[in-house]
Amino acid sequence: MALKPTLYKVDLQLVDTDRNVYDNCKFTIAQHPSETQIRMMIRLMVYSLNYHADLQFTKGLSSQDEPDLWQISPSLEVESWIEVGQASAERMRKGVSRSPKVILYAYGSETNVWWQKVEDAYRALPHIEVYKFDHKQAAELEKFVQRKMQLTVSISGADIYLTGSDTELSLSLSRLL
Fold it and tell me: Do 13 and 163 contact (CB within 8 A), yes or no?
């Protein structure tokens, strides 16, 4: 019998001064059985960074044909293909073939080593952006995980400020490509 995902209820107050986005979102996010809480929270931060009414979480880790998040237009075209982690260039090539906007958000202590190995292959891909989260800051995201989360995410430039019930965190995002 396969393990089931763990479901988390999220009440997200979103403030993105760069894009003039001010919204309150309530949704459920699923943590895949093989996914860490940090990765799930990174997906939540990526959702905040790219927020749009048509942006949605996908099957993610359990699907080879879908990214972690995507923005699907009303005409069912993939407008944004968004991955989390240290995806291979081959996986990103799939996104490039299906969407005009492809973004990868890398995180983890080995991100710099991974990037040195894949940078040339990524540079050969059109319309792709690659960012990385500071791994020490990202590790602190686990403190925010609760079955019912009330979070405020404020975005200004490359800085993300996250506030939970009794915890605060500042995250930095660096552009690699």
Answer: no
Q: Are 98 and 78 in contact (CB under 8 A)?
A: yes
Virtual torsion, Cα 49, 50, 54, 59, nearest 10 deg: -80
Whole-structure pTM value: 0.94
For domain 7-175, the question of CATH label 3.10.640.10 is answered with yes
Domain boundaries, given as residue ranges, for the chain: 7-175
Q: How far apart are CA 49 and CA 148, in angstroms?
A: 21
Cα–Cα distance for residue pair 151/168, rounded to 1 Å: 10
DSSP 58: -
Backbone angles phi, psi at 169, to 5 degrees: -155, 140
Burial class of residue 115 (count of CB atoms within 10 Å of its CB; 0-12, 13-18, 19+): middle
Phi, psi of 10 (to 5 degrees): -125, 130
Q: Compute the distance between CA of residue 84 and CA of residue 108 in angstroms, rounded to an integer.
A: 11
- pLDDT tens for 4-41 read 999 999 999 999 999 999 999 999 999 999 999 999 99
Mean pLDDT score of the chain:
95
112-159 pLDDT tens trace: 999 999 999 999 999 999 999 999 999 999 999 999 999 999 999 989
Angle ∠(170,172,173) on CA atoms, nearest 5: 145
